[in-house]
Amino acid sequence: MTAKDLFDIIYNGFLYAFMITTFLGIGISYTASQLKEPLKRYNLMTRAVILNIILIPAIAFIFTLLFPIKEAVATGIILVAICPGAPFGPKLAQVENGDVPYSIGSMFLLAMISIITIPLSASLLLPGDFSLDPVSNFADSRPIRASTPNHRSGIKSRL
Length: 159
Fold this sequence. Notes:
- The protein is mainly α.
- The protein is built from eight helices and no strands.
- It has a single domain, classed as Na+/H+ antiporter like fold, CATH 1.20.1530.
- Helix content is 77%, strand content 0%.
- It starts with a helix and ends with a helix.
């Protein structure tokens, strides 16, 4: 095992621990109705989806066309751009006394939409000969979703 491998293991462990403890801490702080409320703010959620799904990838794609960069770097820029939201958004909202339920709601919505949009965006925007079938991607994710515990079971007790 090289030092890089060891660093990757430690880094990923801390990253997952940070995300899990953040979401557990935030999840305990809010009720299910408080977390569902931002999803009813259609105008705000629509703007978040348009920004994250259409505008940011388009800007990244244009950036990669305008500047002479290697194909591998262009691929990395576009991959980052087509993956909406960020797992640390709720923590940032909490630290800045922002709207944490909105942050959680938008992150959840973007994660669900990204199951379809990431393969579509990748097929359309990535340089070179790249294709990814969103239907098979969704079908491949079913075993993962089936193996995860029912998220509603923990929420029912809070209602």
